Amino acid sequence: MKEPVLVVMAAGMGSRYGGLKQIDPIDEQGHIIMDFSIYDAVKAGFKKVVFIIKRANEKDFREAIGDRLSRHIQVEYVFQELENIPEGFSVPEGRVKPWGTGHAVLSCMDVVDAPFAVINADDYYGAHAFRMIYDYLTTHEDNDKYRYTMVGYVLENTLTENGHVARGVCETDENHYLVGIHERTHIEKRPDGAAYTEDEGRTWTEIPKGSTVSMNMWGFTASILKELGDRFPLFLEKNLQSNPMKCEYFLPSVVGELLAEDKATVEVLKSMDKWYGVTYKEDKPVVVAAIRTLKESGLYPEKLWEE
């Protein structure tokens, strides 16, 4: 069995945040959120990380994190670019929005041929999540179906006070396997829970308390890369006509298709940890305070990467 790889989606510029939020320090030592994710991943057993970035950000990214991490874990880069689409298609004039998380992971096709975990660059997942997903990836292989996994979080543990978030709301069976996942791109915290809108706030639908949501922490075998590649042209054919500027090839949507076709299973590993992330500038003080508390509790040293 090949050693699992960690894949970090870091191509987004953070449109709601303003600036390259993935490389914004969150403590006095200059660590960024990714430092803590990679630190937890190395502790869990991961030995290689692949960063998905924009080519234009490569220099800043290497200087901010890649070069120093390369002393502790093998580092590779792949580039998610708008122009990287199948032959016969072209980028709609004026489009700047990336093609989405499914397209991001597809960018790894040439460098990943092993089981791999996928995370967002700007989310704090907690050490427990990395241990769970590494253990799964080292003990499960495809057989009659693709055997995937996902770390799920309690919705209330993943909300911000400062605006809306996008989450995949999960439906699971009694054995903790994913039945379906519904991408909700506008969820807001409410005094009594959370609700989402799909019509710019004209109507709202409550989400049950305790719901499991995806924070894009997935565990896959390399089989997902072929599926993503095969389905991307079909996605473009369907969506370039109806929504050329904003359609996105969501990773959870492809997983949902594979579940519906009975080609895959996804075991949901439940984390009770609180998520931290910088979706908005106003979130940063909350994350800074949380990291300080985690350090004071002994979970992390003051300097993560002591030589």
TrEMBL record:
SUPFAM superfamilies: Nucleotide-diphospho-sugar transferases (SSF53448). Residues 7-167 form the Nucleotidyl transferase domain. This is Nucleotidyltransferase.
